[in-house]
Amino acid sequence: MTAFDAGGLVGELEVTFDVDVLVGAYPDRDGPPGTPESVLAALAGHRVRAGAVASLRAALFDVRSGNDEVLSLRGTIGDSGSGGAGTGRDAAGAVDVIPVGTVDLRDPIGAVREIDRLEPLGVRAIRLFPDEQGVEAGFPSVRHVARRAALSGLVVLTGGDVRRFWQPFSGLEAKVVFLDTHFYHLGDFLVAAADEPGFHTSTRLLNSPDALETVPADRLVFGSRTPHYEPIVPLLRLATSGLTPDEVAAVAGGNARRLFG
Predict the structure, then answer these.
(1) pLDDT tens profile 13-37
(2) Per UniProt, what is one Pfam family of this protein (predicted)?
């Protein structure tokens, strides 16, 4: 019996931008500690060259210190372990760190205040953790934050059920990546996205045989949720998809770079 060789099937696929990377740990579940060093090493080991990195500390405990931790990764680790300018890099794999600001949806006034603080620091995206923070799509705080992000053209990376969380972003010309789109709900995403050119979906949970091929390639962005999800799964699905080489390159980073500007 021949052993399954996922690495062989992934081949030479290189991801130039992963939109779903976390540092930190979930205190209520088993899992990796998510230290920056280990996360960057994991990305490099899977030939992921850049990641939009957000902090679980910011999502679960303290917004400001967690965001500052992510900001500190930018430009602190060079190719040989020394400081670099503008991007953080894993010493072995040269992984660019794109800091993502996290806000607390339970505090809408404070959330907008944090965006006001982060934007002049060069942050181009914010991340929402509605499930972890116990916030529903219909809460006024979500629409409030959505409006503020759209006003500045910030990219919003949001968790939550796409069947509900599309609504707070509708009609705002918002740039949104739905990180938790499941292939069971892909039809709902496609219907919602038809009238919203800024709506995109992560590939992480689109693992059915034809899910990637069903979505217009320019609406797909690669997401792995390293280190709290196994990156080989979305890598394998993308590498073995029916997309053209140009489409694979767009999904593996080109679309995300266009979004982030």
Answers:
(1) 999 999 999 999 999 889 999 999 9
(2) Amidohydro_2
Give the C-alpha separation, 158 to 180, whole Å: 8
Query: Could you tell me if 156 and 128 are in contact, meaning their C-beta atoms sit under 8 angstroms apart?
Result: yes
The domain 12-260 is placed in CATH, from the list 3.30.200.20, 3.20.20.140, 1.20.58.100, 3.40.50.1110, at: 3.20.20.140
Cβ(74)–Cβ(85) under 8 Å? no
- What pLDDT, in 10s, does the model give residues 47-72? 999 999 999 999 999 999 999 999 99
pLDDT-above-70 percentage for the chain: 91
Distance CA 125, CA 104 (A): 14
Nearest CA among 221, 223, 233, 227 for reference residue 259: 221
Distance from the first to the final alpha carbon of the chain: 48
Question: What b/e readout covers 45-58, taking b as 16+ CB neighbours within 10 angstroms?
Answer: ebbbbbbbbbbbbb
Domain boundaries along the sequence of the chain: 12-260
- The full 3-state SS of 222-254, as one line of letters, equals CCCCECCCCCHHHHHHHHCCCCCHHHHHHHHHH
Q: Taking the model in full, what pTM does it have? A: 0.92
